């Protein structure tokens, strides 16, 4: 089945080995994202790498998140997802479209970028490794 965009909010607990709660907020929930910033220890920002028409709005949302005062020192992992689809844009293309070099150099928080496929699990081990390194203690 085709993946559907996240609407609403989901909570998932992970053991890294310490218990970490992941709150998933869909893109359409952007207006209420700031109400969760104060309880955020790390941020995973997921971008649909198969949808070039969403790049500009995703970039604006990312810049808004990065400029939020409560997130000024929160580590960020940008995930370019859906790399399993034939129409996906590569990490090099996405970095260029997002002007990630400029974003990373002007951001106050550390930013990491990974390619993933939620459908087939590609990159998931790297995401868990980043979470363990970032939130492990």
Keywords summarizing the entry:
single chain, 137 residues, alpha/beta, Rossmann fold, three-stranded parallel β-sheet, two-stranded antiparallel ribbon, 4 helices, 5 strands, globular, GTP-binding
Encode the helix/strand succession as letters: EEEHEHHEH
Radius of gyration: 14 Å
- The percent range for helix content is 25-40%
CATH class category: Alpha Beta
User: And the CATH topology?
Assistant: Rossmann fold
Strand order of the largest sheet: 3-4-5
The averaged pLDDT comes out at 90
User: Helix tally?
Assistant: 4
What is the total domain count?
Answer: 1
The residue ranges in which pLDDT falls below 50 over 5 or more consecutive positions are: none
Shape: globular
Identify the quaternary structure here: single chain
Beta-strand residue fraction: 15-25%
InterPro entries: P-loop_NTPase (IPR027417), Small_GTPase_ARF/SAR (IPR006689)
GO molecular function: GTP binding; GTPase activity
Organism: Piprites chloris (Wing-barred manakin)
Keywords: GTP-binding, Nucleotide-binding
Describe it.
This protein has 137 residues and is α/β, with parallel strands linked by helices. The chain has a single domain, classed as P-loop containing nucleotide triphosphate hydrolases (Rossmann fold, 3-Layer(aba) Sandwich). 28% of the residues lie in helices and 23% in strands. It has helices at 55-66, 91-98, 100-106, 124-135, and strands at 9-15, 19-25, 43-48, 76-81, 111-115. The longest helix has 12 residues, at 55-66. It is globular and about 35 Å long. The chain starts with 8 loop residues before the first strand and ends with a helix. The mean pLDDT is 90.
